[in-house]
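Provenance and format

Records in this collection were gathered into a single text stream. Each protein contributes a sequence line and a token line. The two records reproduced below are adjacent in the stream.
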Amino acid sequence: MRYVLAFFRALLTLAGLVALAGCAYLAFWPVPPDAPTGQAEAEPRPAVPCEARRVPISLSPKTIQVRPGGSIQEAVNQAQPGDTIRVAPGTYRESVLVELPNLTLIGQAAGGRRPVLTGEGERENGLVVCAAALRFEGFELRDYTKNGVLVQSTSNITLRDLVADHTGEYGLFAVRSSRVVIEGSVAIGASDTGIYVGQSQEVTVSNNEATQNVSGFEIENSSEVVLVDNYSHGNTAGVLVFVLPDLEQKRALDNVVRGNRIVGNNLANFASEEDIVSSVPSGIGILIMAADRTEVTGNEIQENHSAGIALISLKELFPDRQQFDVGTETEGSWIHDNQLEGNGTDPDPALTEAGLPGVDLLWGASGWDNSWSESQGTRFPPVLPGRSWPNFLRVAYWRALLLLKTYT
């Protein structure tokens, strides 16, 4: 009998040591960095031909008037840096290329009408700009096949009071640029994104409206972007904050999504199958994927049928890909003080097939150091880490969730 008791004591001691080692692993074993695991698998997207010119600013800036029947492009070609081009209400059937810096293009309003740039379903882009210090405002852009406005590889750009209505893949598109302001504009019916910021820094997107697009607003591989006081409704997804592979810029850092209304984004996804956004489920308010240190606060997020705010890994969108040239996890997000109501009531089948429920707050266990402070809303998992949680507890909880995700 004495030997049997000794055996069971030894067995219990061993079990205790195993349990202690397991707890130590969950809580204290170092978390490996979220580093790239491979090379890019595709060439970077080609830029639209545009070459910024270096021309001294005019000492005697002038104003050029364009009237119906005239050409905005001809006015741009005649201008000097510092000039202002005013365009009277009317329809202008053309694409405009701006390679000259320090220009102002103003659409004049009269009798409720404004100048309309139309692609007639044939031209690719409404306005392409690669020169610095452009102010473009007061225009409507319609029926292009690629972009309403394309800002690329430049800085100090202001897009204001524009309407991009069914302009192809994107409404207003800023890429590889810095110090861009997009404000007071409307984007409708883009097959990818209404208002897009890609591979850019120091961009402010404020007081805009996006509706009937696949994605209302997207911040992609960009840093220090502030998305504030916008209205996103009737899209497939309201706001995307993404890092995607195979691009020149590899990270997204320190973006802010604040004070926006993100309501009823339940439109069926109509993106082309070759576009990455075709994989985004309908009914998403805000989706953060692989971006780091994103703050989401003070937003009204309602009636998005799949999820109000969702944080996922890049691996969720590319389940068959083995290696990535970017980090795949969403890290350091701070989700707090949002108004959440009525989200997740009828989730997209793609969500339920992935084993995820429809909720206001959804975390796919991507990144151990994300934090929530929300008094409202349903959530999955039922407990979301707060900022006051010590790091060892965050890590242990995150690893436990990963184990449950793996074995259930």
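Adjacent record:
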Amino acid sequence: MIEILLFAAVSAVGVALLVCSLGGTGWLRNVQYSLGLGDHTLTRSREAEVWGPVDVLFVGSSHSYRTFDPRVFERHGLRVFNLGSSNQTPVQSEVLLHRYLEKLSPRLVVVEVHPDIIGYDGVESSLYWLSNSAPSWHNVPMVVRSANAKVLCTAIFSTKKNLGRSFRRYVEPEVIEGNRYVSGGYVEREVECWHPTPQPTDTVHFLSSQLHALRRMVSTIEEAGAECLLLEVPDTRMLDGALVGLDEFRERMRMFGDFHCPRPPQLDDSLHFFDPGHLNQNGAEIYDEYIIDLIYEHIGTDVGHLARRSGSGAVCYR
């Protein structure tokens, strides 16, 4: 037994040294380190360190960071922060909560849940996060639970790389490929309009690891004394119509807590989305205004007298 443990320890050290030495050369396929991304994870992670306290914290996938615009909520007297990132699943959201919940000290945490995210393994999002955030012990459970060689090797390499001076000095451009970072975690995209086309049939898949992580997230939020709200950001009606299992997804989400899937009646597939599953800037502003009362219901302030700026007159320039 002692020999086995010794061999395992030596092997682990050897792998770590190999990854740290060759990880940046491109020779190791399992090291997927990519600093600076279109979703501005690096800028967002740094800003989250100093942004709190906030009234509302948003976590979730691209449906979060492309939808919840801090500027809209500021108009209603709310300070918010958006911790969304590309393909972020509950497994990564849980890491972010453990790392930033106390610092941001929100009154309400809005967890963006989506049918196409609950069935992802979260590997892509884990790699993004490890590459674009300072090393932290909070990442360890995510890496272990992934049981994925790419995540493990990238975690080792990024720990070494992101402790260095070059990482601390690196600054992401404000605009990356037409995506502009807005302080508070939001990413604004140049206005585009989707041309409706038939969508292929797809089925909602449920990974037990994601469902367990979501349950732990809700408990973490409640234990911190914050309110928790689960929101499904709308897709185009055409995409919803092609998705098998959407009703089951919503029923399952209701089992985890206060779940809502509000849809402003004025949302139009051809005017307010830039692809089948993401609101454009016009659509995001309509949606954010629409959910203001729902937000305030959870933090105990009556704002029913505030007029909603629906944005129904917004024009999409092609």
